[in-house]
Amino acid sequence: MHGEEQKWVDEAIQTNWVSTVGANINAVEDQMAEYIGVKYAVGLSCGTSALHLATKLAGEKLYGQAKPNQGTLQGRKVFCSDVTFDASINPVAYDDGEAVFIDTEYETWNMDPAALERAFELYPDVKLVVIAHLYGTPGKMEEIKHICDAHGALIVEDAAESLGAKYKLNGEWVETGSLGDYNAISFNGNKIITGSAGGLFLTNSKEDADKVRKWSTQSREAAPWYQHEEIGYNYRMSNIIAGVIRGQIPHLDEHIVQKRAIYERYKEGLADLPVKMNPFDFEKSQPNFWLSCCIIDEDAMAPMVRGERDYLYKSIPGKSSPQEILDAIAAFNAEGRPIWKPMHIQPLCA
Ligand SMILES: Cc1ncc(COP(=O)(O)O)c(C=O)c1O
To answer: Can you give the residue ranges of every domain in the chain?
Structure first.
């Protein structure tokens, strides 16, 4: 926190805009749309709600409006990033679709374009791809967009972790959150800037922005009474939370510089060990360095097994395992976590 957050929260309270309307929400939407380079941003309660409405909107565009008690993706497969947080892919199930997980490449740890191309050969009817930029590192979007265009598929871009990360698309630097047909970011407490919660749906289409804004306020139609013609959600951003986000926005670039310094410090400090930091494409991307991660070289791995809740490892001199390292740093009161467990081996998706 920097101080400005308090000022905007106080102003919301003093002016009595303690609601899901107010100047802070408008400011967050306008400032973030401008930063990311999209025409419209819609303030929502969290990144998950932004992803849900993005996924639902894509489903409706592709397959038409569903009945109120049915999801727009019923009976449809959707290609999804595999190594990601489950919030990326849960909205597919909220709308009754089936996620098909696409393998991950080694250069950025994101969706592998070659695997995506192969998936379209196996399932040519699929028309929707949900892609996340893992740990703030942009994926291979040029290739992925090319493949999706060739197959007439829409993209939901999950930029929850990558706000402020840039990608060189057709020779131009653009922000993540502007690369899909429907895009989402998050202001969760652990993100590069935060409101404690909050998220944005991002688009260049006024019609889509209006639709998502309506859905997020219980689909109340523009009538003098409570008129409802579509299923609705209580997903709008709070003006108090927007006050915290508004105070954080001027510090986004500074947070990225700090995160980059952390990444480089680890890289330098770990240089003599048999580990590799999370990689990125220097020429085509500028990550926001949200999370610094490392993997252990295969020949330096000590044996380790994981069950659904517990684990077992063997200590071997000169070698180590993720869980042994996490236990060792926990002894110094330092927090570490395993890299996301891939979705295709989650019991939820089995
Ligand atoms: C990749 C990814 N997608 C979606 C989300 C969901 O965002 P939120 O927590 O704001 O709902 C998160 C983080 O929480 C995330 O890391």
So the answer is: 4-250, 252-339
Distance 325 CA to ligand 1 centre (A): 26
Out of 45, 81, 84, 85, mutate this one to test ligand 1's pocket (max ligand atoms within 8 Å of CB): namely 85
What's the CA-to-centroid distance between 85 and ligand 1, angstroms? 7
CATH 3.40.50.150 is the classification of domain 4-250: no
- At 190, list the tokens: 């652990």
Under 8 Å between Cβ of 255 and 245: no
Residue type at 182?
Answer: Y
Tokens 């467990």 belong to 341
Q: How far is the CA of 316 from the centre of ligand 1 (A)?
A: 36
105-148 per-position pLDDT tens digit:
999 999 999 999 999 999 999 999 999 999 999 999 999 999 99
Indicate the burial class of 344 (C-beta count within 10 angstroms; 0-12, 13-18, 19 or more).
middle
Q: Which residues contact 269 (CB under 8 A, 6 or more apart)?
A: none
Q: How far is the CA of 129 from the centre of ligand 1 (A)?
A: 17
Q: Is 179 exposed, middle or buried (0-12, 13-18, 19+ CB in 10 A)?
A: buried
What residue has token string 């309307």? 21
184-193 pLDDT per residue, tens: 999 999 999 9
Residue 350 above 90 pLDDT?
no
Q: How far apart are the first and last CA of the chain?
A: 41
Length of the chain: 350
Atom of ligand 1 nearest to the CA of 161: 16
Check: CB of residue 73 under 8 Å from CB of residue 97. Answer: yes
Q: Using a cut of 0.90, tell me whether the model's pTM lies above it.
A: yes
Residues in the ligand 1 pocket, defined by CB under 6 Å: 46-48, 51, 84-85, 87-88, 132, 158, 160-161, 186, 188, 199
Predicted local confidence at residue 257, as pLDDT: 98
